[in-house]
Amino acid sequence: MAELGSDVTKYVLKLLKLIETPHLHDPAEDRLKTAYRNSLHYKIPDRWDWREKGYLPRREEQWRCGACYAFAVAHVVQAQLFKTHGYNYDLSLRHTHTHTCMHARTHESTHARTHARTPTHARSHSALTSTHKRAHTYARTRVARACVLPPQQIVDCSMPDGNLGCGGGSLRASLRYAAREGLERELDYPYFGLQGLCLHSRFRSRARPARWAILPRDENSLQRALATIGLEVRERWLASDFFLGSRHGIYDDPLCTPLKMNHAMLLVGYTPQYWIILNWWGPHWGEEGYMRLRRGVNRCGVANMAAYVELQ
C-alpha cells in the first residue's frame, strides 16, 4: 500500500468501509439464482484461474476513499464483458461486432505518434524520442481507461441506493445502481479518490448488468459459480494485522473470522488449497495486488456474501 504512514489504524479505517444498506427492491436481482441453478449439472475443474484465460484486470489503488464496494462492482461487470467479448473489450465502440482495445491501442498510438512529430529541425533527436515516449504513454493510458468501467461513478452517484460515497457502501446497493443506470467508461469518468457531484449520463453508459444474484453461503457454490458463470465479488472480514504491508503465501489467520464483513474484493480463481483474490491497494500490496486465502474453513467469511452478474 503506497500511502501507509505511521498511523496504520487511521489509514485502515478509511479503507474498510463496507456497510449495511437498506435492502431496496431491485427487479434485476435474481432471487432464484437461475444461472447458478443451471450450472449444477456441470462438472467443474479442481482448479481455475481467470488470469490464465486472458483476464488481466488493472491492479488499482482506492487511496483514502472507502470505495471497495465500487471497485468490486465495476470490476465484476468488466469481467463479464471479458467473458462475453474477449480480452479488453473496447467500450468506445457500441457495435454488434467484437472490438478489442488492442485494435484501439494500435490506432490511437499511431495517431498520437503522428501528431507528436514536429517540423522544427532544431529539436534534438533525444527530445523527439522523449516526446514520442510521452505521447505513446498518454495514448496507452487513455486507451486503458477506454477499456475499463469507473468506480468513481458508483462512488458519486449511488447514494440514493444507500451508499455513502467514500464513507462506505454495499454490494447490494452498488449492483442495484449499476443495473438501473449502467456504467460509463473510466475515460469519461476517471477515479479521483474523493466523492464528488454525480456527473453520470445514461447516454454514456456502456455496460449494464441484466441480472445479479447472491450465491448460497458455502465455498462449493463459490467454486461452481466462478468456473461456470464468471468472476465474483465478495464481502469479507479483514483483521487489522492484514494491512501492515505486503503479504505472501496463503493467508490463514484464525482471528480473521466470518462474523462481520468490512471489505469487498474480486474472486478470480481457486485451487484445492486456496482462493485467488484481487484487492484494490495497488500492485505492490500482497502478491502483486492479489492474495491467496485458505479454502475449506470459510476464512474471513469468504462465502458469507458473494455475488455474480449477467450482462444484457
From TrEMBL:
Residues 44-310 form the Peptidase C1A papain C-terminal domain. It comes from the Eukaryota. SMART domains: Pept_C1 (SM00645). One of its GO terms (biological process) is proteolysis. The keyword NAD does not apply. Residues 110-133 are annotated as: Disordered. Residues 112-124 have a biased composition (Basic residues). Keywords: Hydrolase, Protease, Thiol protease. GO terms for molecular function: cysteine-type peptidase activity. Coiled coil: none annotated. The keyword Ribosomal protein does not apply. Belongs to the peptidase C1 family. This is Cathepsin L-like proteinase. The lineage of its organism: Eukaryota, Metazoa, Ecdysozoa, Arthropoda, Hexapoda. The gene is Cat-1.
